[in-house]
Specification:
By secondary structure, this protein is α+β, with helices and mostly antiparallel strands. The chain is built from nine helices and eight strands. It has a four-stranded antiparallel β-sheet. A four-stranded antiparallel β-sheet has the order 5-6-7-8.
Length: 295
């Protein structure tokens, strides 16, 4: 609700500590569930659980969905980046400014729009710097973009030369360990959840204290994202465990969709048994306030 979201710190604390309570609840419930489960020396009637009705289904569904529910709850906690455990030491904004070659200024030094012969269907024009070189970025769509330099439309060789010359400025005191072109999505660079990532892209890796990786759009020269070692760990703890962003799944969307839907239905049924059991207990305690109810 926006009434809560407008208080950002309060909103974050509520989600963080509710998630923490959920993690503890799942952990303690699983202990009880395993203690009460009997596979070898079964209960009367050859049952593996001592419970009946909704309590029985809560017991069995809880153990059956334990892996999914526990990882979902824990990754939900991690999505809040609690207590600053995933904070980076350096500011990527400053690194991008160095890569660009400074802040935008003196727009008269940029190529003039009147020198561009074909501006048909251009929806957006951006003034940008790439390694200190003034350029214009013409966007016709998310996948149709052109970079303009002083001599006109920049070809691939010209743009990539600008990019490679600017890359060392991202981490001037570190060594460039690797540089590779990405022509297909992988575990750390991919499009999913309405988040578009262009191809091809350049991935560069440095040996700085945070083991930074950068992904640069080879069509425009813009830095798309930086991923430190902490970011890569957070990627698996949140996107991996919470959204099941695994290559085998998100590159085959029907499989990903079916997996998510089935797991959510399983978790919903488990949660429903909790609500029914909790409601029945509240009603019983209201009607019989002096009677002790055993689990």
């Amino acid at each position: 609700p926006w009434q809560l979201r407008q208080h950002a710190d309060l909103w974050a604390d509520i989600l963080t500590y509710l998630s923490l309570v959920g993690v503890v609840s799942v952990f303690t419930g699983s202990i009880i569930g395993f203690i009460r489960l009997r596979v070898n020396h079964r209960y009367r009637g050859n049952a593996v659980t001592p419970y009946k009705g909704f309590n029985k289904w809560h017991h069995l569904l809880g153990l059956g969905s334990l892996l999914f529910v526990s990882t979902f709850m824990f990754s939900g906690l991690m999505s809040m980046l609690p207590w600053g455990i995933f904070d980076n030491e350096t500011d990527v904004g400053e690194q991008i400014v160095r890569y660009n070659g400074g802040e935008l200024s003196e727009l008269d030094k940029f190529p003039a729009l009147t020198t561009i012969a074909n501006t048909d269907a251009v929806k957006e024009v951006e003034w940008q710097l790439t390694g200190g070189t003034p350029t214009l970025l013409l966007s016709r769509s998310a996948t149709d973009k052109q970079v303009v330099v002083a001599d006109g439309i920049a070809d691939d060789a010209t743009l990539r030369a600008l990019i490679r010359a600017a890359v060392p400025a991202l981490q001037p005191s570190a060594t460039l360990l690797a540089s590779k072109m990405i022509s297909s999505y992988d575990n750390y660079y991919y499009s999913h959840h309405n988040r578009y990532r262009p191809l091809p892209a350049l991935q560069v890796e440095f040996d700085d204290a945070e083991s930074s990786w950068y992904h640069i759009d080879l069509n425009t020269g813009t830095v798309i994202q930086r991923m430190t070692h902490t970011d890569r760990v957070a990627r698996w703890l949140y996107n991996g465990m919470h959204s099941l962003d695994f290559t085998l799944l998100f590159q085959h969307r029907p499989i990903w969709d079916a997996t998510i839907i089935l797991l959510c239905l399983f978790g919903f049924c488990f949660a429903l048994t909790s609500v029914v059991i909790g409601w029945r207990r509240l009603v019983y305690r209201t009607k019989h306030p002096h009677v002790r109810v055993n689990s």
